[in-house]
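Handoff note, outgoing to incoming analyst
You'll be picking up this chain. Sequence as last confirmed:
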Amino acid sequence: MQEVENITPYGADSRDKTEQVREMFDAIAPAYDFMNRAMTFGIDKLWRRKAVKLLASSPHDDILDVATGTGDLAIRLARSLDPVTVVGVDLSEEMVEIGRRKVTAEGLDDTVTLGLGDCLLLPFPDSSFDAVTCAYGVRNFADIEAGYREMHRVLRPGGSVVILELSTPRSKFVTPFYNLYTRHVIPTVGRLVSKDVRAYSYLPESIAAVPQAGAMCAILEAAGFTSPRAIPLTFGTCTIYTAKKL
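Most recent structure output, in case you need it:
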C-alpha cells in the first residue's frame, strides 16, 4: 500500500503535498462544512464532542488546534472547556476566513484566534500549550511523525494531544457498504457540490492509506509521546488517538 504522505490531492502535479493540500482546501472551503455534515450524516459533531470530553480532566487553559479548518473543533473546545485561549492554525486562508466568521458569530473572539500555520513548522515557542488537538488533518500531513514532533514541542510537560482521524472499519459486514459509500457516493457528490474533481476522490484514498490503530500509536511514541491510545468510533470509521507529554 502506498504511504499516505505520498498520496496527494492532484496526483501527478509536481508541487509538494503541502502546496497541493493548501490549494485543495482553498477550493473546497465554501462546501466544506456542508460536505462534512452530509458525508457523516452529522455524526462528525458527536465525534468532536467525544474528543473534547477526553480533555476535560487534563490541563486545558491554553489549547492549540492544528489543521483547524473552518474552526468547528476550536469552537467546541471553547464552548465546552472554558479555556483561557484556543489558537487554531491551518494552511488554507479560505478555510480560516470562514472559521473566523463563525467564531465572531459565536461571540468567541476573546477566546478563539484562528490564523495561518504549517503543522510541520508551528509558529510558537516550545511549551506554549496545555493541549494540542487535530481533527481530520493528519492524513494531509506531508510527514506525520514530523507533525507530531512539532505538537510535542509546543506542548507543556504533562500536556495532552488528542487526534481525531477518519479510519477504515475492520468488520467484514460493514466494510462492503463503507467501500461503496466512500469510493463511489462521496466522490460523486463531492464533485457536484464542491466543483473540485479530485478533492473527494483523494479523501477515501488517504483514509485507506493513513496509519491506523497500533501503527498510529507507534508514530506518536516515535515523536516523543507516552501512553498512546486508540479509541475506535462508529464501527471503526473514525478513531480518536490520545497521548501525553512527560
